[in-house]
Write a structure and sequence with these properties.
The chain is mostly helical. It contains 5 helices and 2 strands; from the N terminus they run ααβααβα.
Length: 137
Amino acid sequence: MNSETRVEDRLSAVEDRLNRLEDLLVGISQKLDRKPQPTAVDEEKGEAFKEWVTDYVSMRLQQLVPETCDHPADTNSHEGPFLDNTSVRCTEEVVHRVKRIPIPFVREMVVQRVAENARRAEVDVVDVEFFESAATF
């Protein structure tokens, strides 16, 4: 009987521990289920943050893709391809040659140089001949 008493004592101790563990888990679950009520200050901060994010994303999009933001009324995209990040029209061959420039910042410099020269020369469409002459530094 002595061994039966020990087993019963051990079983009772395990049940007590399980009951305490269950109580702790119920307490944690109740705390997690309670949601704090947002205050007016929290809502104002949330709205201010949303406004800031919207402004920031808008600014970054205009920096990254300026040709898609605030187009002049007379620019039509169906008139042909344009030099990257500009409103200067060009031929397909020029687009192909620009894409062959392997270093991105050099490609951007060449495109900007050609666009500036095309605006100064009032060229409607940049062809390969004009591109080659305007791209030289």
